[in-house]
Amino acid sequence: xxxxxxxxxxxxxxxxxxxxxxxxxxxxxxxxxxxxxxxxxxxxxxxxxxxxxxxxxxxxxxxxxxxxxxxxxxxxxxxxxxxxxxxxxxxxxxxxxxxxxxxxxxxxxxxxxxxxxxxxxxxxxxxxxxxxxxxxxxxxxxxxxxxxxxxxxxxxxxxxxxxxxxxxxxxxxxxxxxxxxxxxxxxxxxxxxxxxxxxxxxxxxxxxxxxxxxxxxxxxxxxxxxxxxxxxxxxxxxxxxxxxxxxxxxxxxxxxxxxxxxxxxxxxxxxxxxxxxxxxxxxxxxxxxxxxxxxxxxxxxxxxxxxxxx
Length: 310
Ligand code: GLN
Prior knowledge:
This protein has eleven helices and nine strands. By secondary structure, it is α+β, with helices and mostly antiparallel strands. It has a five-stranded antiparallel sheet. It has a two-stranded antiparallel ribbon with strand order 1-9. A two-stranded antiparallel sheet has the order 4-5. A hairpin with a 3-residue loop joins strand 7 and strand 8. The relative contact order is 0.20. The structure holds glutamine. GO terms for molecular function: glutaminase activity. Pfam families: Glutaminase (PF04960).
């Protein structure tokens, strides 16, 4: 069973929105600080084409960390798991997404997983295509295909704002360059990474991307396999184990849906074989996840028994 009632979804949003006041909009990327903490929207997209939504679902958000799942899929398609997992591991960290702490604990240096910044920077480094521009020209059409919208583009203001202030990510990159995990110009990599994070989507588009992962890589309209099944499954597994940063364990227990969040307040959910979810709620909890968005997923999961473990 699944939620097909717009009025019920409206009620859920109304209740979940009351939690936004306990969160805070991210402002370490200055341009993200302009978001409205009270915003909350959700779209649920089904394989049969139906889409139920509530809130201002046309409003755009930047992908931020949600882009990590998408670049991982692209890089796994480019290079295959054997090569990719030489450079990045498969284990959750229990640390904040931008932590540098565990990088020193492995020899040779290897970020623990592709969903933390250190691992994602390696994955972005591994996108095939040479220059940052060429790699981005492969990544953007891939996102457009997943979202089924060729007009998807970058929020340049947010990309620039992150590029100018990304000292911690630069530190991670230089550490990895010192250990020869990354071997390109760091400014070039930061340019690509910050553009990747600033790709803009609506909740409707995010739900469409979530649906492709839910369907093991199959495009719901054309029936085409746009991500190989084994790679889509692998990405979903990372969503379960590491998708909500160091809150992934609690999220799996309470909600049980493969999901990936971003500091813009987006959450992409992929209920296996059933539907894709796109949420936008920029007020974040102390781990950096949308506080009202998590509440909304909790209510939906409980009401419709969506946990993959139930
Ligand atoms: N662009 C952000 C960063 O690297 C993405 C982090 C996130 O969404 N958690 O800091």
